[in-house]
């Protein structure tokens, strides 16, 4: 209804006549209303599709693009219409919002495209109408989750990019968390896995009855008692390895308190403690009973496998996230068990020699029946008992079946998320490789440009063919800009670069010159996009030699913005004498006339040489 | 004995439970019909749709030009596609214009003033007629309309209770966040002042003539009536 508030304004103001006779003070003068031109039809041309609407319709929301004077920026006086170079299908929804006051969300469009259009037209996403709001929010949340995974995966996968000054602790921790980073870590990973397996198998095997070599003992002994020394040695070895691993992890952990409280470390502790307690405890008879109990905990070593297996981790995570459903299941089962146990007890009370001796005894029957196990050790014999027993088993099936789909869907969602993350990581690697290739391609193009003296319309056209052929206006401006930057700084301008890697550059340039143009243009967009997304990623191409990481970062950010500026303000490419004579490195560097583009701002004076050929 | 009785009792209970649940099952399956209530088809509320008379007629009846009527109708139709406004819509509109207080009472009186035929809904003609009076009418007409607004029971007289209601409704619209904070009996004082001014013969009620006369004597009111002239 807020749409029409402006429509009702005349009505509200007219109705204010009712206050007049009651007014105790003189009313303020009315604001001057400019003579309305009457309603006129505006034409909005969105990428060729014409939309016509009353001006009043657009004026309903004065804080949006179309309702305010901002649309005058898009007014084309020749055709008398407002031209927007945007998606006409999306515009339909935007315009309908003005007309009806409700913003609907298109089902078949990408939610991010829709968001971008809203942002462009000045509409806040909260305006989405109630009918579409839930779906909009769901899709947006899904998207955000996926993007968050993306970023996490990138950050996690930044393993190869090791910060230079990492200490032993950090390296060790990284080796533990990502075994694929180095060979030693991988070896350690497999060794611990092997020993976990050995330990678990030993625990299992030592309870198997072995036949004694001498047939004299009729009683079979378990292997553990026949070969106590062997098993003890194996156990010791495993525990030593586990202890060592635990201590190393403890040392390497960035936050020891958090590590101590984490689940995996608790499992580690529980796995190795029984051994030490067994060592310390003397071989008394009464205490050895407890010692035997402790041996049970050795089986928890098997949980250490969850570090090695992603599937186990997913399962654990699923169970954790379904805690409420599991809780509900448990609660409803308990209720049903108590009810049915009571009923069965009283039903079977009269029978002789009945198993249902008390209500807790009937619990066992109820559980076995509700889970449809039916061991048959307790069966009702009266008619009433049988009737209620059958009702019990039917309801058991229902109660257990209800929460299971929820748990299953949770598991499936998490599992698919993981699969998506893996796939995306693989794609990222390919993409990064391609980006690197493109970067080196543009670098070489720039080198070519410089080697040819930077003049493109000079007379010497023999060697030009290779590099001049495919150069677009954009590339020309771009190279000119890079060249200007070089001139600004006290760098030995082409000489250092060309001297240090001329042969490599030439070879690569010749190989890549053909592909440069096509690759560079295609991946310039990728580069721009990536730079927009992740400005923190310092370029890894070969030529960021002496640059401090921070400085080259600034370079990147600046040059990208300025390229845009250069395109829109066509400056003639440099054809000045100072480019043919490299200025000496030590001298001031400033030779101001090289700064064609004043938007460069203050030229960066680096104390040491900076290689500009990296983007 | 006791145990036998118990188990027999439980037996009976069990059998009863089984029989009842099977009956229910058959009912759900549609094989037998146990319930008495018939399925009532709810009559769908037919959409009340009203179309106004022709444009020329409206132009003749009111003081608006054709273009103004067109603009008004477009806005009206956009907000109320069915062609009529009901009281709830009035209240909603007013609540949005005056969010600080409770405008529903005043909107109720206003609706009654607009709804000249007392049908419970305001058609476009009523709407436009009232607007025409309020925006383009003579002073006399405006004052008469205001009198009609104050006269809640439409008996031709305004008494103190009706005035109190109106004034309270207006004060409610203001809300609690006034400066200075209004005291409890401010409305009553306001009404007393008003009555003293308007009620010429002090008989406790204000007739239309008294009202018109008193208002025309008051310069403030006359001046303010010009305020809401140019709204379109």
TrEMBL record, chain B:
One of its GO terms (cellular component) is voltage-gated potassium channel complex. Keywords: Calcium, Cell membrane, Ion channel, Ion transport, Membrane, Metal-binding, Potassium, Potassium channel, Potassium transport, Repeat, Transport, Voltage-gated channel. It holds the Pfam family EF-hand_7. Its main location: membrane. SMART domains: EFh (SM00054). It is found in: Cell membrane. This is EF-hand domain-containing protein. Residues 102-137, 138-173, 186-221 form the EF-hand domain. One of its GO terms (biological process) is regulation of potassium ion transmembrane transport. It comes from Colobus angolensis palliatus (Peters' Angolan colobus).
